[in-house]
């Protein structure tokens, strides 16, 4: 099979049930859909964060007052500033691009076997409610003469997760970034996450998990390769 990443994407999204596989919810989309996502992406210069703090702080003071709090009470005196710094940290992924971190970390290597980095912890913010979702990312790729420093896979996950997200887009962005940087034979990304908007509020389902996957190249075309990845990553 002469597969490589060609922008054809397969995603599966499902609530996590032990007896269900990934295969029954596969949707094909075009790379153009992924590129279209990017047009709406924003960025933020790290150097500007400090000058943005006073307005963010004032906004949090306002939120607290509208919650009926006395913002002059001792425990809350520095809360607006702390909260402003915290939200900047939670969204620090806007500071960096993939190029910033991949600089010099792609090597020529005569290796064409699967590489997997699994159980990468990620924390993100759901863009619908601004509450956390968090879980684990599993990344696999099959090199095409080029490999990347292993830590960079986790850094890519970090860049995209520290933004306002939906899990499907996060999954796809990680996969597409690796695909574009390495032109490998295939990329597979699976994320298992718990969404606090479904746990602490709303439907309040404590134990629900959401699993999303993006399969590119040989992972999309060859069921055995996909299965090998899923077997190696989903083992408890
Ligand atoms: N597909 C997807 N949905 C998400 C994600 N994070 C949050 N959501 C959903 O976004 C939806 C927003 O639905 P709305 O009906 O507009 O908002 P809501 O009234 O707060 O919805 P409930 O959570 O059902 O109370 C909810 O169904 C959330 O579960 C995500 O990463 N992916």
TrEMBL record:
<dbReference type="GO" id="GO:0006729">
    <property type="term" value="P:tetrahydrobiopterin biosynthetic process"/>
</dbReference>
<dbReference type="GO" id="GO:0008270">
    <property type="term" value="F:zinc ion binding"/>
</dbReference>
<feature type="domain" description="GTP cyclohydrolase I">
    <location>
        <begin position="57"/>
        <end position="232"/>
    </location>
</feature>
<dbReference type="InterPro" id="IPR043134">
    <property type="entry name" value="GTP-CH-I_N"/>
</dbReference>
<keyword id="KW-0378">Hydrolase</keyword>
<comment type="similarity">
    <text>Belongs to the GTP cyclohydrolase I family.</text>
</comment>
<dbReference type="InterPro" id="IPR001474">
    <property type="entry name" value="GTP_CycHdrlase_I"/>
</dbReference>
<keyword id="KW-0547">Nucleotide-binding</keyword>
<comment type="pathway">
    <text>Cofactor biosynthesis; 7,8-dihydroneopterin triphosphate biosynthesis; 7,8-dihydroneopterin triphosphate from GTP: step 1/1.</text>
</comment>
<dbReference type="GO" id="GO:0050936">
    <property type="term" value="P:xanthophore differentiation"/>
</dbReference>
<keyword id="KW-0342">GTP-binding</keyword>
<dbReference type="GO" id="GO:0005525">
    <property type="term" value="F:GTP binding"/>
</dbReference>
<dbReference type="GO" id="GO:0003934">
    <property type="term" value="F:GTP cyclohydrolase I activity"/>
</dbReference>
<dbReference type="GO" id="GO:0046654">
    <property type="term" value="P:tetrahydrofolate biosynthetic process"/>
</dbReference>
<dbReference type="Pfam" id="PF01227">
    <property type="entry name" value="GTP_cyclohydroI"/>
</dbReference>
<dbReference type="GO" id="GO:0005737">
    <property type="term" value="C:cytoplasm"/>
</dbReference>
<protein>
    <recommendedName>
        <fullName>GTP cyclohydrolase 1</fullName>
        <ecNumber>3.5.4.16</ecNumber>
    </recommendedName>
</protein>
<dbReference type="InterPro" id="IPR043133">
    <property type="entry name" value="GTP-CH-I_C/QueF"/>
</dbReference>
<dbReference type="InterPro" id="IPR020602">
    <property type="entry name" value="GTP_CycHdrlase_I_dom"/>
</dbReference>
<dbReference type="InterPro" id="IPR018234">
    <property type="entry name" value="GTP_CycHdrlase_I_CS"/>
</dbReference>
<keyword id="KW-0783">Tetrahydrobiopterin biosynthesis</keyword>
């Amino acid at each position: 099979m002469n597969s490589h990443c060609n922008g054809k994407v397969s995603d599966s999204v499902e609530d996590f049930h032990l007896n269900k596989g990934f295969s029954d919810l596969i949707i094909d989309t075009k790379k153009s859909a992924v590129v279209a996502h990017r047009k709406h992406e924003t960025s933020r210069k790290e150097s500007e964060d400090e000058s943005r703090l006073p307005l963010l702080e004032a906004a949090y003071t306002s939120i607290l007052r509208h919650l009926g709090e006395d913002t002059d009470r001792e425990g809350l005196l520095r809360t607006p500033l702390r909260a402003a710094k915290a939200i900047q940290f939670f969204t620090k992924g806007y500071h960096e691009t993939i190029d910033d971190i991949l600089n010099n970390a792609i090597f020529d290597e005569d290796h064409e076997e699967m590489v997997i980095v699994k159980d990468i912890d990620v924390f993100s913010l759901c863009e619908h409610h601004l509450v956390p979702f968090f879980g684990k990312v599993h990344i696999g790729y099959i090199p095409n003469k080029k490999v990347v420093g292993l830590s960079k896979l986790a850094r890519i996950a970090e860049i995209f997760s520290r933004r306002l997200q939906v899990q499907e887009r996060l999954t796809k962005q990680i996969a597409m970034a690796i695909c574009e940087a390495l032109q490998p034979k295939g990329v597979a990304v699976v994320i298992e996450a718990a969404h606090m908007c479904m746990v602490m509020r709303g439907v309040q389902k404590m134990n629900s998990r959401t699993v999303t996957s993006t399969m590119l190249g040989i992972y999309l075309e060859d069921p055995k390769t996909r299965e090998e990845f899923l077997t190696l990553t989903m083992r408890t």
